[in-house]
């Protein structure tokens, strides 16, 4: 789990209704991206709705070789709209350590055109950790994200 300083965004663990009640974690959040493979239960969807939290489901698997780029490309535009609106957002997977941080770091690259230092398994950051095949080579991942930046006028 990590809160980032470049935007009002954090990478977190899978929420529960109990966690949604914690104002230090979910207070003020207006958008979240679920990158876990688990869809929300009806109870959790209702709790998000009651708190005015919009969300999207972009499931990605931790299994070796499972592709993530399409889901990242799908989430980034909505994350950008939320950012430009000055709203707080959360990206979560199951534990907030790999998938969610990869999405947030891809978002940082979209905004800043440079990578965020956040060492992961001996690599500079999460998107750089392509060794298990989730993302194409870093140069291709960068090119795809940069093309979004031009399209959405970051």
Fill in the keyword field for this structure.
globular; 5-stranded mixed sheet; Protein-Tyrosine Phosphatase, Chain A; 154 residues; alpha/beta
Q: Output the CATH class name.
A: Alpha Beta
Question: What does the largest sheet look like?
Answer: 5 strands, mixed
As for the CATH topology, it is Protein-Tyrosine Phosphatase, Chain A
Q: Indicate the radius of gyration in whole angstroms.
A: 15 Å
Distance, first to last CA: 26 Å
- The largest beta-sheet arranges its strands as 1-2-5-3-4
Write the element-wise H/E pattern from the N-terminal end onward.
EEHHEHEHEHH
Q: In total, how many domains does the architecture comprise?
A: 1
The overall strand count is 5
Mean pLDDT level = 91
Inertia-based shape: globular
| Percent helix range | 40-55%
Describe this structure in words.
- With 154 residues, the protein is of the alpha/beta class.
- The chain has one domain: Protein tyrosine phosphatase superfamily (Protein-Tyrosine Phosphatase, Chain A).
- The chain is built from 6 helices and 5 strands.
- The chain has helices at 17-20, 23-26, 42-50, 69-84, 99-112, 138-152; strands at 2-4, 9-12, 29-34, 54-57, 88-92.
- Strands 1-2-5-3-4 form a 5-stranded mixed β-sheet, with helices on one face.
- Strand 1 (2-4) and strand 2 form a beta hairpin.
- Helix 4 (69-84) packs across helix 5, helix 4 (69-84) runs parallel beside helix 6 and helix 5 crosses helix 6.
- The radius of gyration is 15 Å and the shape is globular.
- It starts with a strand and ends with a helix.
- The model has no long low-confidence stretch (mean pLDDT 91).
